[in-house]
Amino acid sequence: MRTLTNVDVLILDDFCTISVDLRGQEDLTKIVIERDGRLPTIICSQSTAAYWVKVFPSRIGAESLVSRLNNGRRLKIGDFDMRKHLAKQAAAAQDSD
Asked: Cross-referenced Gene3D superfamilies, in alphabetical order (predicted)?
């Protein structure tokens, strides 16, 4: 956990796409608290912060975590799904062979 706390830039991709147990939530919260205001953390997710609060085991802990993450900037890039796009390209390439 110390490595994640001190890495220059922490990137969490596909955030909250799998379930997190209470221990995982506590560990994540500790990491975010230690990094807060000190080192950048980038979170990529297809869901909203409101959803994160609903799915984490401890609602109070989730609200605390989200409030720290909300000190940052949000960048909404739309609903384009690169995986679907690449799958269609691959299927089209196979069909043309």
From this structure: P-loop containing nucleotide triphosphate hydrolases
Q: Where residue 85 sits, what CATH number does that domain have?
A: 3.40.50.300
Partnered with residue 10 across adjacent β-strands are 41
Domain count, the chain: 1
Cβ(53)–Cβ(62) under 8 Å?
A: yes
Which helix or strand (DSSP H or E) is residue 41 part of? strand 41-43
HSE toward the beta carbon, residue 73, CA cutoff 13 A? 3
Q: Is the pLDDT of residue 24 over 90?
A: yes
Higher-pLDDT residue of 21 and 47 is 21
Packed helices 22-35 and 59-69: angle between N→C axes, nearest 10 degrees: 30
Tell me the C-alpha to C-alpha distance, in Å, between residue 77 and each of 4, 12, 29, 32, 80: 26, 16, 26, 23, 8
Residue range 48-60, pLDDT digits in tens: 889 999 999 999 9
Range of the domain at 64: 2-96
